[in-house]
Amino acid sequence: MKTAGETAGETGETAPRRQRTRAPSPEKTAQTRRAIISAALAEFLERGFANATMDAVARRAGVAKGTPYRYFPTKEALFEGVVRQEIAGALVDVNSANRAPGEYVGAFLRRTMLPAMRVVETQGRGAIARLVLTEGVRFPVLVEIYRREMFDPLLNQLKELVRKAREEGELKSDTVVEHPELLIAPIWYGIIHNGLLDRSQPLDIGDLFEAHLDLLFGRRA
Predict the structure, then answer these.
(1) Hey, what CATH class is 26-74 in?
(2) How far is the C-alpha of 120 from the C-alpha of 205, rounded, in Å?
(3) Same CATH fold, 91-217 and 26-74?
(4) CA distance 175 to 26
(5) 138-197 pLDDT, tens digit each
(6) Radius of gyration over alpha carbons of the chain, in Å?
(7) Considering the domain 91-217 in this protein, what is its CATH number?
(8) Which InterPro entries does this one have (predicted)?
(9) Dist. CA 11–CA 14, nearest whole Å
(10) What is the DSSP secondary-structure string of 35-93?
(11) Is there a contact between 88 and 153 (Cβ–Cβ < 8 Å)?
């Protein structure tokens, strides 16, 4: 009895070969990852972290049910991906070294940080912060991720800025140097107010932050 290979050789045909599955290109991989993260952001904002599911994220992203797990093994890892891309990825660089020569710290914050504060609500960053506030007690990992990726890096840069402002005489006391959290207090108040205290009359967080800069640094900034 002839083998399949011998028969194929006699007829001039080649035995069918199993086609190799090509790995997706780096561009396709990045595109899929972005789609999953965007879908996850929408899912988290609509349903909250506790009620969001990986299956629902896959449906929103238009990918197979198991695809999100190839990029993010757990829902917590997916939330971290959202914070990194959608929140920390848009983090304003307020490193003191980026100030222009002779630029006041207050003016630097107006130039760099104020525009980002004006879109906190429209780009979902305020909603993510509120999600961390409301579900962080039940899911402490959300707080850990948010602090590591967003809160602490920004606060560390602001600490250096207010120290410079005090050294250069722009701040008249050590209060903000000792408590740099005061600089971002109106941002957090606006986030809490808009989502929890009075949704019917939301505050403009950009205006709130600008007024705070006026109080701290004066209008010359």
Answers:
(1) mainly alpha
(2) 7
(3) no
(4) 49
(5) 999 999 999 999 899 999 999 999 999 999 999 999 999 999 999 999 999 999 999 999
(6) 26
(7) 1.10.357
(8) Homeodomain-like_sf (IPR009057), HTH-type_TetR-like_transc_reg (IPR050109), HTH_TetR (IPR001647), Tet_transcr_reg_TetR-rel_C_sf (IPR036271), TetR_C (IPR011075)
(9) 9
(10) HHHHHHHHHHHHHHHHH--HHHHHHHHTS-TTHHHHH-SSHHHHHHHHIIIIIGGG---
(11) yes
Task: Quote the CA–CA distance of 34 and 84 in Å, as a whole number.
Answer: 11
* Domain-wise residue ranges, the chain: 26-74, 91-217
Spatial separation of the C-alpha atoms in residues 90 and 95, rounded to whole Å: 14
Cα separation, 8 vs 15, whole angstroms: 6
Write the single-letter amino acid at 142.
Answer: L
174 Cα distance to chain centroid: 32
Name the residue with tokens 């967003």.
150
Q: Which residue has the tokens 């403009």?
A: 204
d(CA 108, CA 27): 36
